Amino acid sequence: MTLSVTEAQLYGLCGAGLIGIGLYGAILGPSALRRLLAFNLISSGVFIVFGAIARRGGLAGGAASDPVPQALVITGLVVAFAATALAVALLIRLAALQPKTARSSPLAELAKRRYDAFDPWGGGKA
Amino acid sequence: MSLPEVLAPWLDGPRAAELLFPLLALPVLALLLAPLLGARGARLLTLATLLLGLGLALAAAAALTAADAPLVYALGGWAAPLGVVLQLDGPAALMLLLTAFVLSAVGLHAARDFGVAAVGRRATLAFWMLLLGVWAGLNGLFLGRDLFNLYVAIEVLTFSAVPLVCLKGGAGQLTAAFRYLLFALLGSALYLLGAGLMLGLHGTLDIGQIAERLGGLMMAEGVDPAAADESVRMASLVAVALMSTGLLAKTALMPLHLWLPPAHGGAPAPASAVLSALVVKGSFFLLFRLWLDLVPDLRALDVGLLLGVLGAFAILLGNAMALMQERLKLLVAYSTLAQLGYLFLLFPLAGAGGPAVTAALVQVVSHALAKAALFLLAGRVLAAFGHDRLPRLDGFGRALPGTLLVLLLAGLALVGLPPSGGYLVKTLYGQAAGADAWWWRLVLDLGGLLSAAYLARILAVALRPPAPAAPGTTPKAGSRVGTLGLLVPGLLALGALLLGLLPPSLFALLDIGRADMGSATAVAEVMRTALTPAVFWSSTGPVLVVALAVMLFHIGGDSAWQRGIGAAGRELAGIEGDLREWRVAGALLLMIFLAQVLAVLP
Amino acid sequence: MPDLPLPDARFADIPLGLALLVLALWLIATRRDRSAVIGFTAYGLLVAVVWVRLGAIDVALTEAALGGGLMGLLLLTAAARLGEPRGQPAPPMFMRLLVGLLCVGVTGVLAVVVLSLPTPAPNLVAAVAEHQHTTELGNPVAAVLVAFRAVDTLLESVVLALAVIVLWSFAPDAAWGERPRTLELGTPGPALVLLARLLPPLGLVVGVHLFWAGADDPGGPFQAGAVLAAMATLMWLARLGAPPPVQSRLTRVGLVVGPLVFLLIGLAGVVAADAFLGYPEGLTKPLILIIEAVKTLSVAVALALLVAGPPALPGNHLPSRAAS
Predict the structure, then answer these.
(1) C311 contacts chain A (CB < 8 A)
(2) Distance between alpha carbon B18 and the CA centroid of its chain, in Å?
(3) How many angstroms separate the CA atoms of C154 and C159, rounded?
């Protein structure tokens, strides 16, 4: 068997690999920011798979790249950016609420076992 | 010309499909105008738009009934696969109506609480805009049949639902919101990947066109199994599994529920009502579309069984955990997890034809009405006492008798006593399961009894003599919980409780566009016997016995209850707590994806 | 249509793909958040090169502006504000092993699917080419975005506007009405100020060009908006200006005017072109240009405000940054 990989296949596989790496980071990442970063790795892996599909379709149809998946990726990139911005704002806001002496991650909660101690109403303050 | 004549082309005529795009455009338009009007105008704008939207949804349902076939509208005049197409069928019409109704009800209920004077400009503007956002996202989900268009709709929904959780801005709520956001985003990414692969496999994103192609491949299977078609078929099913996994995360099907209890338990009560009654149903509805409409023959795959087992797990564990909660809102949130489980019994039982699909759709409605009522009522308790911890709420029924009464009515609908929606669901699922698959019926019955148990626990707490005065055991002076505030929860609860008494012919709406369903006949058949003494007592008797047992147990006070839960209960709670750990839930997400892949392989 | 043979991966692609994977692994494995964030910015630029290799210039431009530029700014600000969190205990070995295996499994399944994509590849190139002339646009991607799949583009610009209001709603009540201050990261260095003086005029030209060229060549409202937003945030970062307060009526108009005009023209299409989001013949090109112009503005406003963060009270400087 000769090793003959088209560039679309190569980048498709690369996208699959990025998704796997990103999933690992999103699940086991050491801090909330890193999990967010890993989510962006997953997204970019997904988009690169789209890109590989666009390339295959494009070449089959006589163009450099199929415009439809390209348009979808542009839409997706903007949505992913907005999501990241929201998540970052939540993190920064949480950090501001944390007492300054506690230098632990504001979201250490996320990894805490038996996450039960949420009292959203702050002990009866309405 | 009279008004009916003017409207005729839309309600019963060639222009019926033109009712589809306003259902999407209206909430979007209001959403864009709201920031210009500011916090004060946003409330009025939202309420007015919601009532208009309710009328629009009614008109669409009427037009669909008149047409008796799905309505299709090509946006911009471009047909699929190049363009994006909207479609209205029976289940979609039901969801549109339900959404407009529940949002209007919750909006009216929240109108006084979410004003500038009460919560400030920030929370007011955000709350009303987010209601519009939820509405726009949901309508997009119900009308969509293009996989990427559905992705954008689901992102609109997520972006609106997450901030509802942290409107109050406390650290706990912000943490819950972050968790919800990140897990939902993981789900979105998986869904998007599946959609993209479908485009690469079939050159279209339209659910109908993909289903047609897949149906053709299924047919060809016996003819030439070695063909390249087989690998396309398998790859398509993997793509569906990817989308399905992402949507399961967003629906919070146990054990992927880590984000739901803190989010739904911590949000302001009207927001919790919307999140629990509607938002999780949005992603479920898309699962419904994928497995029932896109995949040509779910019966041939084991994946239905897998989803059903997860549903059964959710029913049992969710109800058991609800029974053990100390906080009323968390109890209601865990009850949501259990009720979501009932939806997933659809997938193993759908093969049997109509009754299971009818049952799942009725469950969506019944739970939405009952759960919206329960969260609004929990909000009333919270407003009156300043907290919602059951151990310190002894005798709250004396202070809030109306609240307690409506709470029981909504609870009975969840338990499934005739003639409630819950009863219809259980009986129809039972019919679909048939005589052999007794275990599904066992799960349904156990689930009902556990719900009866937590309801009895609330009742016992409410009726106990009030504890000697201590902070938080008596209603706060001047708390504003007038009787008027019971109107909306009462209406919602009665709706869920009396769902079975609706004329069966109304249920025929669900069947439009779906083969081999006979909702009207099935419902009529169930309700014919539901209120005969024999059937009524055989379903009510065990519930009464369990309820009495729990209440007797409770006479000894909450410490007796805690002892009663015992080591086994605490162990169960510990395991459930572990499942909600981020890393565990993440690993489970991947396992459920791989399990679905295995279950779609031959 | 002749079925062109798929070219084999050229020697540039294999190192590029490998570099991407290695960098991704490093991003996951590195200990400090700050280095990971810097690495991610480099990663964004590398991905832009991948898009060029895949022949998707429109996406490459978006990725470079958004993924490399604005995202880097956003994440660097976040890293500076959050500081280095105390390292959580590493997950137990069995957990790392289990999750690692599961991820390998997922990648494996995806790899099989990617390799089993059918040949000849189904595509919409011909369908787009056939109808592109009705939009009078030379760039097929632009035609898809603004005509064939207009509803997605509309909803996505709604998402952007909604996201800004959502972001603002994260502010404490007391700060409502204030201006965003997330980018106030201490005194800006002279290099940053110089950059912020030199780049914006250039960025403005590039942005306007991207918008104008986008009709026929790669580019368009998103790319142009992202470049303009990057210039604005750079100036805010260098304190050469400040983001507007959330009550500013003008800002809010700028935020929603893009999707609003898009929606209204779409609704007018019901009457004029007999389809929601349809364009009447003869007016197509001018209407599309109007839509793209206001959308560029709204995208720029939204992206810049998303980086600027929620409103905050004055004096909301960095928490003590002993670690960094």
Answers:
(1) no
(2) 28
(3) 9
pLDDT at C322: 36
CA of C168 to nearest chain B CA: how many angstroms apart?
Answer: 8
Residue contact A67–C59, C-beta within 8 A: no
A96 touches chain B (CB under 8 A): no
CATH number for region A7-99:
1.10.287
Centre a 10 Å sphere on the Cβ of residue B118 and count the other Cβ atoms it contains.
11
For A8-72, what is the HEC assignment? Answer: HHHHHHHHHHHHHHHHHHHHHCCCHHHHHHHHHHHHHHHHHHHHHHHHHHHHHHCCCCCHHHHHH
Q: For residue range B175-184, what is the model confidence (pLDDT) as tens digits?
A: 999 999 999 9
CA–chain centroid gap for B184, Å, is: 16
Burial zone of C136 (CB within 10 Å; 0-12 exposed, 13-18 middle, 19+ buried): middle
pLDDT of the residue at B571: 84
| Positions of E strands within chain C | none
Look at A120 and B177 and tell me if their CB atoms are within 8 Å. Answer: no
Which residues lie across from B106 on neighbouring strands?
none
Kindly determine whether residue C159 and residue A6, on different chains, have CB atoms separated by under 8 Å.
no
pLDDT in tens, B22-79: 999 999 999 999 999 988 889 999 999 999 999 999 999 999 988 888 999 999 888 8
Average pLDDT over residues B247-257: 93
For testing the chain A interface, which of B160, B165, B185, B388 should be mutated: the one with the most A CBs within 10 Å? B185
B508 closest CA partner among B497, B518, B498, B495: B518
Q: Is the peptide bond before C118 cis (omega within 30 degrees of 0)?
A: no
- Using one digit for the tens of pLDDT, what is the confidence trace for B552-587? 877 666 666 666 677 778 888 888 888 998 999 999
- Rounded to two decimals, what is the model's pTM? 0.92
Chain C contact partners (≥3 CB pairs within 8 A): A, B
Cα separation, C180 vs C301, whole angstroms: 13
Q: Give chain A's end-to-end CA distance (angstroms, integer).
A: 71
Interface test with C, best of B78, B206, B209, B231 (most C CBs within 10 A): B78
What gap in Å lies between CA C53 and CA C155, rounded to an integer? Answer: 30
Q: Which positions in chain C touch B231 (Cβ < 8 Å)?
A: 116, 118
Residue from the list A5, A20, A53 with its beta carbon closest to the beta carbon of C117: A53
Answer whether C216 touches A (CB < 8 Å).
no
The Cα C208–Cα B305 span in angstroms is 56
Interface mutation target, options C88, C107, C113, C257, chain B, most CBs of B under 10 Å: C113
Question: What is d(CA B67, CA B61) in angstroms, rounded to the nearest whole number?
Answer: 10
How far off is chain C from B292, nearest CA to CA, in Å? 22
Please write the tens of the pLDDT for every residue from B466-509.
766 666 666 665 555 667 788 889 999 999 888 888 888 888 88
User: Which subunits count as partners of chain A given 3+ CB pairs below 8 Å?
Assistant: B, C
Residue C101, chain B, CB below 8 Å: the answer is no
Q: 3-class SS at B87?
A: strand
Q: What is the DSSP letter of C184?
A: -
Residue type at position C84? E
- In terms of Cβ atoms closer than 10 Å to its own Cβ (0-12, 13-18, 19+), residue B59 is middle
By CB neighbour count within 10 A (0-12 exposed, 13-18 middle, 19+ buried), where does B481 fall?
buried
pLDDT tens, residue by residue, C149-183 = 999 999 999 999 999 999 999 988 888 888 888 88
| The residue count for chain A | 126
Decide if C277 and B76 are in contact by the 8 Å CB cutoff. yes
CA–CA distance, B135 with B128 (Å, rounded to integer): 11
Say which of C155, C176, C260 has its CB closest to residue B153: C155
How many CB atoms are located within 10 Å of the residue B33 CB?
16
